[in-house]
Amino acid sequence: MATGTRMGRWTGRVAAIAAIAGMSLAATTTAAQAADEWYEVGAKSGTCRLAQSLIYGAYGDAEICWRGTEVWVRGYIADNQPDGYKAVLQIRYHVDGDAAYHYRNYLSDTNSANGGTSASSWSKARYPTKDLHARACTYSGSTKVACDGTWR
C-alpha cells in the first residue's frame, strides 16, 4: 500500500484512536505509557519515516519522526486474521545514555482478537531518545506468539 494512502487514513481513524497498549500485554514488555517514557502530543516535528511490518495475523506501521534526540511516533495496527490472537505494535529504542534497548508494547488492536484495527495519536519521548524501531506481533492474552523477525 502506498505511503500516501496509509498516511491519509490517519485522519479518518479518530474514532479508532486507542489507549496505548493495555496492561494485559505488559507481561513480557512494559506498555509505553506505563513506563512514563512517552506522552501524547498534538503534532510532530523533524524528519520522518514510515516503518511497515507484516506477519501472519498482524500488519502494523509506525510513523517515526525525530529532530536530534527528540522523537515522535504514532502507530497503526491491524489484526488481519480470525485466529484468536491480538495484534500488537511493539517499539524499541535507546534512551540517551542507556546501552540497552527499551522494549515497549506501543499499540494493541483493542477491537477484537478476530480482526480489527487501531490507530494512535502522536506521542513524544519524554527523554532524549534515539534508534526507534517498530514491528508487528501477535499475542494470546499476555503471551507473545510471534513477531516480525526484522525491526523496521
Describe the structure.
With 152 residues, the chain is mostly beta strands. 5% of the residues lie in helices and 49% in strands. The chain contains one helix and eleven strands; from the N terminus they run αβββββββββββ. Strands 2, 3, 4, 5, 8 and 9 form a six-stranded antiparallel beta sheet that branches. Strands 1-7-6-10-11 form a five-stranded mixed beta sheet, with no helix packed on it. Strand 6 and strand 7 form a beta hairpin. The longest helix has 7 residues. The two termini are 16 Å apart.
Any chance you could write out the topology, listing elements then pairs?
Layout: H1 3-9, E1 30-31, E2 38-40, E3 47-55, E4 58-67, E5 70-79, E6 86-95, E7 102-108, E8 116-119, E9 123-125, E10 129-140, E11 143-147
Parallel strand pairs: 1-7
Antiparallel strand pairs: 2-9, 3-4, 4-5, 5-8, 5-9, 6-7, 6-10, 10-11
Structural class from helices and strands? mainly beta
**How much helix, percentage-wise, in residues?**
under 10%
Oligomer: single chain
Poorly predicted segments? 1-28
* Strands, count: 11
The dominant shape is globular
- Determine the N-to-C terminus distance: 16 Å
H/E series, N to C? HEEEEEEEEEEE
Number of helices: 1
Computed over alpha carbons, the radius of gyration is 14 Å
Biggest β-sheet strands, sense, barrel: 6 strands, antiparallel
Q: What percentage of the residues does DSSP assign to strands (E)?
A: over 45%
Kindly report the average pLDDT value.
Answer: 78
Short description:
The chain is mostly beta strands. Helices cover 5% and strands 49% of the residues.
